[in-house]
Specification:
Elements (H helix, E strand, L loop, with lengths): L7 E3 L2 E3 L3 E3 L15 H12 L4 E3 L3 E2 L11 E2 L6 H13 L3 E7 L10 H20 L4 E6 L4 H5 L15 H18 L5 E7 L10 H13 L4 E5 L18 H10 L4 E4 L5 H10 L4 E4 L1 H5 L3 H6 L29
Parallel strand pairs: 3-4, 3-12, 4-7, 5-6, 5-7, 7-8, 8-9, 9-10, 10-11, 11-12
Antiparallel strand pairs: 1-2
Helix pairs in contact: 1-2, 3-5, 5-6, 6-7
The structure holds flavin mononucleotide and iron/sulfur cluster.
The site of iron/sulfur cluster has 13 residues, from helix 9.
């Protein structure tokens, strides 16, 4: 039976347990998107706290992208050396780290087919650059209405070329990005994705579209699929009461693909994490706010103190400096 503390292999890396730190934008990058000492300290602390796999906060891979404020940028080789400091710091603490490669926003319907191919190429180049910066892999960001999430949504994509017109065609960009990344990186370099299972809006992407995309990505050889949805950080989660916001979609995908599925959203207790691992085909559990509240949570659970996360899902950390927990920052 699966357990949170199992060691596993994913792509070419060994993970010391099944706990991931889900991508969490820190707002701490420098004015030009540079990695700062604050970012390195935060990830080193998370790595020390026990999670096996850290996914960076969304990192913009195109120069003329929109911004959400203080996100890291990675659109050319000038960023490689500073990211190497980050990946070294995480590896020194025994964790693995993959970069969440993202475009914040951009045009969907208006792009010519060769311009979409240009987007695909840029994601491929970002993966090659991430490998040079010491990352164990990348995670394609296709959730929460950032660019790729819009691209695969019927709400935004009305294209009539090979990139639009059906669930399969809208999802094709993801498969082409995966291929472009594989082409430019060594075997074993992890390519994962975080994807909406539901846009939670009338006329938006729904679970059927998500399952189609998930199957296509699995067939194309993606290493892991993290299942999210819009309105991702649901409020007022209580351990044992209303955990696991996206469990039905994640379990449905895990039941039909061999690719490891990562559950994120509202997991607050070891008991629930282990029940999910025992009862479904889901392979990994990702946490964001519990690890903001308590970066050491995984080690705490492993040491036998299995009280649930102290996070009360108030979402104040979206507004605090460095997205720190309201209850742990000094006032
Ligand atoms: C401050 C903050 C920043 C976040 N930044 C990102 C991000 O950069 N990329 C992403 O995919 N999700 C981001 N999320 C969403 C989380 O990764 C996660 O999907 C969500 O919070 C649900 O998980 P949780 O209940 O464990 O917090 C962020 C969440 C928070 C609270
Ligand atoms: S501010 Fe703290 S308690 Fe509130 S959601 Fe964020 S991490 Fe959890």
């Amino acid at each position: 039976m699966k357990n949170l503390f199992d060691e596993t292999k994913l792509g070419g890396v060994t993970l010391r347990n099944r706990a991931w730190r889900s991508a969490t934008w820190l707002g701490l990058a420098g004015r030009n998107g540079e990695i700062t000492n604050g970012i390195i300290r935060t990830y080193a602390e998370l790595a020390k706290g026990g999670a096996a796999m850290l996914v960076t906060g969304l990192t913009s891979i195109v120069e003329d992208d929109a911004t959400i404020g203080g996100e890291a940028k990675f659109y050319d080789d000038s960023f490689v050396a500073e990211h190497r400091r980050l990946t070294d710091a995480v590896h020194d603490e025994g964790a693995k780290i993959i970069m969440q490669t993202a475009m914040v926003d951009g045009l969907v319907d208006e792009l010519a087919t060769d311009e979409v191919e240009g987007v695909v190429r840029q994601f491929g180049e970002a993966a090659a650059r991430a490998e040079r910066a010491g990352y164990d892999g990348v995670q394609i960001h296709a959730a929460h209405f950032f660019y790729l999430s819009k691209f695969i949504s019927p709400l935004f994509n009305h294209r009539t070329d090979r990139f639009g017109g059906s669930s399969e065609k809208r999802a094709r960009i993801l498969v082409e990005i995966l291929a472009a990344m594989r082409e430019r990186t060594r075997p074993g370099f992890v390519v994962a994705i975080k994807i909406n299972s539901d846009d939670c809006q009338p006329g938006g992407l729904a679970q059927d579209d998500f399952l189609v995309a998930g199957k296509m990505l699995s067939t194309a050889g993606i290493d892991a699929i993290e299942v999210s949805a819009n309105y991702t950080s649901r409020p007022n989660i209580r351990a044992g009461v209303n955990e696991c916001s996206f469990l039905p979609a994640a379990a449905a995908l895990a039941a039909i693909v061999k690719t490891p599925v990562v559950l994120v959203g509202g997991v607050r207790s070891l008991e629930t994490a282990n029940a999910v691992l025992a009862k479904t085909a889901i392979q990994y559990i990702a946490l964001s706010r519990p690890l903001i509240r308590e970066p050491n949570l995984i080690n705490r659970w492993q040491s036998g103190d299995i009280r649930p996360s102290a996070c009360v899902s108030c979402n104040a950390c979206y507004r605090t400096s460095a997205h720190a927990c309201l209850f742990t920052v000094s006032h």
